[in-house]
What does this fold into?
Amino acid sequence: MYNRIILIGRLTRDPELRYVPNGAPVASFTLAVDRPFRDQQGNRETDFIDIVAWRKLAEQVSQYMTKGRMVAVEGRLQIRSYETQDGQRRKVAEVVADGIRFLDRGDRARAAAAPADTGMGDEPAQGGQDEDVPF
It folds into this structure.
């Protein structure tokens, strides 16, 4: 079985960094991805996809990524369910990122300090929940 996804889009907001009880950092953000076709009025529809990054990748995401930046995200699709406070079952789909690559320059001062690549390239992407990014 194989579960890989690659998305290119823009951040809809700055990433939110938090720490889970065991101390691992986790960053979450939403990526706006345009569909490759237009509707009858000539407009493109956009999908808003939740992205989650863990550990070192999460820290890098929160440090260097900002609203509006264009990025490529590689990871796996995760469907999880939870129960609301009023007892209803809900499902959520999100992409757990293994690697993220900046596709635009963004703010020059921040871009100069940012790593050029956060895991996507010729080598397999790394840095998911179970391992750290190799830099």
In short: The CA atoms of residues 79 and 93 lie 5 Å apart.
